[in-house]
Amino acid sequence: MEPLFMTPVFHHKIWGGSKLQSQFGFKIPDDQTGEAWIISGHSHGPTAVANGRFKGQTLAELWQTHKELFNNEAGAVFPLLIKILDAKTDLSIQVHPDDAYAAEHEHELGKTECWYILQADPGAKLYYGHQATTRDELKTMIEAQDWSHLLRQIPVKAGEFYYVPSGTIHALGQGILALETQQSSDSTYRVYDFDRLDKKTGQKRALHLKQAIDVTRVPHVDPVLDIATTSEPGLTKTHLLSSPYFDVEKWRCTGSTTQRRQADYQLFTVIDGNGTLTVDGHDYPLEKGASFVIPYDVDQLALTGSMVLITSWPNQTQAK
Question: Is position 196 annotated as part of the catalytic site?
Fold first, then answer.
């Protein structure tokens, strides 16, 4: 019985920066590193186990060959993907498909996601939702590039949480560092990319206007979040989201606490501070940026220290 610590996989992005190194100590490949995939079974960047008997094996491999670690869960792929994103400049305005559209057109899961804002520069903003009232109006405004009337912009600060269901037009804005919990999918339809040129190709990145118009929810409706906080000795839990695909919580550890695993398996990332994880009598040091999976054969875990973690687990009705 042991936790599965993950080795992150990094992705160069036109909008990326260097905060994944300066804020988390990651050894990034260049100063345009936009994404650290920190717990992933996706084929575009599966993370490998860094410790124990499965060291060197990827999460994707374990999902196929050791299903007992996940209570023999069904499903072709590990269902969740956890990232940290560094938006040195604005991401493209984009939208993701739901499961049905993605299965038909992309042959993978849809992409519902959420963001916990780790850091935001003064004046930082999100692009979130749109102002169109009908699909025809949406199409007209996109084709006219009437972004000032179409797009909603929202000021953002550290500690905020946003739920981004599939079909939501969105983008992280310049100066935001965020932890993203999402379905394990890499299907993104770009609506607008600020006419930027890729330094490597000298060309504008492709847009996907037909697909974007097909999948965008019209009209946009902000989801209602039921955020609730509970406290016990050594630990404060803030339940951020219950979605059809995953639950997300923030844990603030201020001493020592012992907890039961909350689902068949549970994902954790330390976003601040440091401490110790104890499983089956063995201690594992935790530092900012550490990410691990508590598998099915681990019934309980102990945390000691002063730290904040984001944890998530698959929605059980979807996972089975």
Answer: no
